[in-house]
Design brief:
The complex is a heterodimer of chains A (about 110) and B (about 280). Chain A contains 5 helices and 8 strands. By secondary structure, chain A is α+β, with helices and mostly antiparallel strands. Chain A has one domain: NE0471 N-terminal domain-like. Chain A has a 3-stranded antiparallel beta sheet. In chain A, a hairpin with a 3-residue loop joins β5 and β6. Chain A is globular and about 45 Å long. In chain B, α6 links the parallel β6 and β7. Chain B is of the alpha/beta class and about 280 residues long. The longest helix of chain B has 20 residues. The relative contact order of chain B is 0.18. Chain B contains 10 helices and 9 strands. The chains are: A alpha+beta (about 110), B alpha/beta (about 280). Chains A and B meet through β1, α2, α3, β4 and β5 of A and α4 and α5 of B. The complex binds adenosine-5'-diphosphate, magnesium ion and zinc ion (ZN) (2 copies). Adenosine-5'-diphosphate (ADP) binds next to α1, β7, β9 and α8 of chain B.
Chain lengths: ~110, ~280
């Protein structure tokens, strides 16, 4: 269970967990791993080298709000209006970018 | 689903106190039947005197999210596609508020819908429809544990899920997958209900045709509550086909009583999961 969530500067989110773990994330990383159906589908497409960036991809992306969803997840409302991703606690924990978790992730890449 | 940049979709449902998903590992176990009759039993629990004519004051909704095989229209006696200009959604039947993709398009057209469209339709059903204040919204999920189901469980702010199974071994295996899915997304499983558990004779004796205790064992194994057994009764499917669920048509039947007991269990489990810790707020 998360005990506290807070912003760490403009680019990062920090979550303190009840087991003592301290997770850090860049907002970019969270957005890149948005679990909503649309983003998941987008990620499955092969990258298009000639893709033109949409205007909203050029302005820096910021989180506006991060309300809890039930007792199992958070939702992130982004400055570009996107808000359909529901980040479960488990998913948030697995996305952790702290040095310890990053090393582990490097050795067991996600399938 | 929405492309980045389009208007945000809000799925906060401050007017709906409890959102209950009814799920099953596979089709044919009676999931839709359970969803409809449970909704009616919940409504009767809130308003115990349904025969007064003013039955249910519309505090319970039933949302058919089985976009691929909607069965709420037939079970509730809505024979034709509904003209939205003359009949606003949600429809009302037997004191329930109802919404189904089957009210909008004939069933054959619905099957080609893809995941993101299913998601968008559900978001609209939840947010664009004026449900009014509800004590319970029961959602009939599509059968199975694939991506569509996962997306739906991540779209609606679920208070909890009920898994419907039958005593046959195969159904139990699928129910396990359902449990796993809700665990993944951390939606509390309110419990397992076993449908078509036994025949009840005139004298009240129970005959278990397909073995006994499977659902109960599965619940124990998964550490979730066992919510009860619903007997087999040919009147269940008769009522379903005729568009008036058994809890409404034969409220004194053994099946209807089993549903009232199920409703009581569900309310109790909702009360318990409600006491879990709230997630901390985030200041950005
Ligand atoms: N307890 C029961 N006794 C007898 N028939 C039942 C019972 N529960 C469901 N049925 C019947 O079984 C069939 C499948 O039920 P349905 O609710 O459509 O299943 P699902 O939604 O899981 O696919 C229907 O004809 C229904 O009337
Ligand atoms: Mg069904
Ligand atoms: Zn997304
Ligand atoms: Zn970590």
């Amino acid at each position: 269970m998360p005990v506290a969530l807070s912003k760490d500067g403009p680019d990062r989110l920090v979550i303190e967990w009840s087991d003592g773990h301290r997770s850090v994330y860049t907002w970019r990383h969270l957005r890149d791993n948005c679990p909503c159906a649309g983003c998941r589908e987008e990620r499955q497409k092969p990258p298009d080298p000639f893709r033109i960036l949409k205007p909203n991809e050029l302005v820096p992306l910021a989180p506006l709000r991060m309300p809890p969803v039930g007792r199992y997840a958070y939702k992130i409302v982004w400055s570009d209006g996107h808000d359909s991703g529901i980040y479960t606690l488990e998913h948030l924990r697995s996305l952790c970018q702290c040095p310890q978790c990053s090393v582990r992730a490097a050795y067991e890449p996600e399938t | 689903m929405q492309p980045p940049g389009s208007p945000p979709q809000k799925i906060a449902l401050p007017n709906i106190h409890n959102v209950i998903a009814v799920a099953s590992g596979k089709g044919g176990v009676g999931k839709s039947t359970v969803a409809a009759n449970l909704a009616l039993a919940l409504a009767r629990t809130i308003t115990p005197q349904p025969s007064s004519g003013k039955e249910g004051i519309g505090r319970v909704g039933l949302l058919d999210a089985d976009i691929y095989g909607p069965s709420v229209p037939i079970m509730m006696g809505v024979r034709d596609v509904v003209d939205q200009r003359t009949t606003p959604f949600p429809l009302e039947r037997y004191g329930l508020k109802l919404m189904s993709m089957g009210f909008l398009v004939p069933p054959v057209q619905a099957v080609i819908w893809r995941g993101p469209m299913v998601h968008r339709a559900l978001v609209q059903f939840l947010t664009d429809i004026n449900w009014g204040p509800l004590d319970y919204l029961v959602i009939d999920l599509p059968p199975g544990t694939g991506d569509a189901q996962l997306t739906l469980t991540q779209t609606a702010p679920l208070s909890g899920a009920i898994i419907v199974t039958t005593p046959q071994d195969v159904a139990l295996i699928d129910a396990r997958k359902g449990l796993e899915m809700f665990r993944q997304v951390r939606v509390p499983v309110l419990g397992i209900v076993e449908n078509m558990s036994y025949f009840q004779g005139e004298d009240g004796t129970r005959v278990h045709l397909f073995g006994h205790g499977g659902g109960q064992k599965l619940a124990a194994e998964a550490g979730v509550p066992f919510l009860g057994e619903i007997p087999i009764d040919p009147r269940v499917s008769e009522c379903g086909d005729q568009g008036e669920p058994i809890v409404h048509r034969y409220p004194e039947s053994g099946v209807a009583k089993a549903y009232q007991a199920l409703a009581a269990m569900v309310i109790e489990q909702l009360r318990r999961t409600d006491q879990g810790p709230e997630l901390p707020e985030v200041q950005l």
